[in-house]
Amino acid sequence: QGPQAARNGTRPTSEIPVGANCAPTYTRGRFTRQLGGHDHRIEVGLQLSAKLGKAFNFTIGAEFEYLFLLQLYFPDIWEDVLGLSLPYIQNAHVSTFAQAQYNLLNIVEFTAGARFDYDQQYGFVITPRIGAVLTPGGGFFMKLLFGNAFKAPSFQDLYYWRKNEAYGNPSLQPESVYTLEAQLGWS
For residues 72 and 35, is the Cβ–Cβ distance under 8 A? Predict the structure, then answer.
């Protein structure tokens, strides 16, 4: 009758059996329990683009992210009953990138670039990209692109949980894909 009474907005009329040191709390007829956790991030990025002459563009940049996360948890259960240490997670991610574009006679544009990532959890990854676009005239164009991409799982994917149950998968590994695109078009 206690939980039902709490849902109905009235005071419980009988004691609810609970384990040691994790008794529920009632406030204004609602069941409450202290919850802890935070997600702090520091993110900084810088990008510089330069046009060198009429035909050459160059872009470089860098990004930094530091994550300090205390996973959501119920302190009275996590520490007192289960005796677990606090679920702290930290990660640093640094990346740099560069891209060059060269336009030859307004007919062919070449693009080459690479991104260099270092992730504290997954290590060092290079993701290159190269492409050529031919525009011979009359609205016709041809593209040939090749690239590689990398995506690390988020900490939500790895460690998400609620109601003291884990739903994330800490065994997830980064995804990587190689792509090749060829396109012939007219507009």
Answer: yes
Q: Across all residues in the chain, what is the average pLDDT? A: 79
Amino acid at 5: A
User: Taking a C-beta distance cutoff of 8 angstroms, is the pair 45, 60 a contact?
Assistant: no
Question: How many CB atoms neighbour CB 55 within 10 A?
Answer: 13
**Strands of 74-155, DSSP E:** 88-104, 108-119, 123-137, 140-151
Tokens in use for 167? 């739903």
Beta bridge partners of 128: 114
* Alpha carbon distances (Å) from 71 to 12, 50, 117, 159: 31, 42, 25, 8
Render pLDDT for 149-185 as a digit per residue (tens, 0 to 9).
888 887 777 776 655 565 677 788 888 899 999 999 9
Residue pair 107/142 in contact by the 8 Å Cβ criterion: no
* Token pair of 173 as six digits: 């590994």
